[in-house]
Known about the structure:
The protein is of the alpha/beta class.
Amino acid sequence: MQPDEFRKWAVRAAEWGADYREGLRDRPVRAQVRAGAVLDQLAASAPEQGEAMETIFADFERIVPDAMTHWQHPGFFAYFPANAAPVSVVAEHLVNAMAAQCMLWQTSPAATEMEIRVIDWLRQALGLAEGFKGVISDSASSATLAAVLTMREIALGWCGKSEGLAANPAVRVYCSGEVHTSVDRAIWVSGIGEDNLVRIAVTGSRRGMDAAALDAAIVADREAGMLPAGIVASVGGTSIGGTDDIAAVAEVAKRHGLYLHVDAAWAGSAMICPEFRDLWNGIDAADSLVFNPHKWLGAQFDCSVHFLKDPEPLIKTLAYRPEFLKTYGNQLPGNGSGGGEVVNFSEWTVPLGRRFRALKLWFLMRAHGLEDLRNRIRNHVAWSQELCEKFRAETDFEIVTEPVLSLFSFRHVPEGEGDLNRHNLDLVNAINDDGRIYLTQTNVDGKIAIRFQVGQFDVTQEDVTRAFDVICEMARRS
Length: 478
């Protein structure tokens, strides 16, 4: 592709994106295609000769958009959002054009130093104590894996990487049943093993870990010759918002000398609003925490911030410094990595390669300002809680779990329905096939419940009201 062609098609792609965003409300939220429909339209082998961009772009328009689920649609109330504020998309255009590999300071100084700065902006916005440092990962899954690897190495006296796990006592990690499945995967990948992930019973309306049961489990494991390593706590779990009492869990962690990691992937964004911070009281006692600006804050995926009270154990766990990756002759004071050296963020994450993820945060926070971002989140919480009360007032609906920020769950309970689980699964499928809104289900103590969360960046109160109307209409169809 020649420079003039690149200019033409880069502009065409940007214009297509703007038109796409403008027309989202006219599309069904979830893709309305059968499995295999896209595959059938794709050539079985790559072409030997290049094809014209006009043909390729026309095929894109014909095949792809109608077979996508539209995460930026204002009728998206499923899972958690993966927001991409328009200003964040513009920043990503620039990142894609530069196509830098930002693994080291010297490979992209602006990327590294901007990452340091915007992470501290976020630290201040979230009300975290001064001294927390951080790194931008692709997802909370990667950050949690890094945390589990770090707690493993600390517990094993830094010999796990060299000796492996077989020569040591069983390493134990503790969490509730409300944590995200990324914790399970981290346990698998780290070699600790699912049998050594200890699930602690939950208690209270927030379904948090029972601190006394956690303490007892750690004591019992030590007495049995096992090696407790760390705790993964949850703030705003994916299923129904399950939230641990961070202060109580941190006290247990401190008593036993265990590493505490907090997964606040979704709910963390809401902590820019001081009135919601009771949800993670005690957070400054955590060793690390993760939240995803790409979920609720408006940063285009992928953008997950992993905060650390002290980065050194993480760097000691993950850093590998062959000669060709060393940086000489530059210093960046006060960066938290020790020794006056510049930061090489590839030493803070499992992958070596890194994208310039800080730019979209810099654009986003400057263009919107924290107060606009706070107001969006406050609106989402208020609208969701109002909707919960509307369902509560309907005789053929019941609230299964109370709102945690903008997430609650409910189910339809028509008189005379024998199998409510099957009925509500059928209802979710019917709603999603209808296309006007998109919802997902969960299982709460054996009950199938329908999750509802408000979080799409441009959603309005009218969109939330419309969702109520759609759900009632679909539920009451004869």
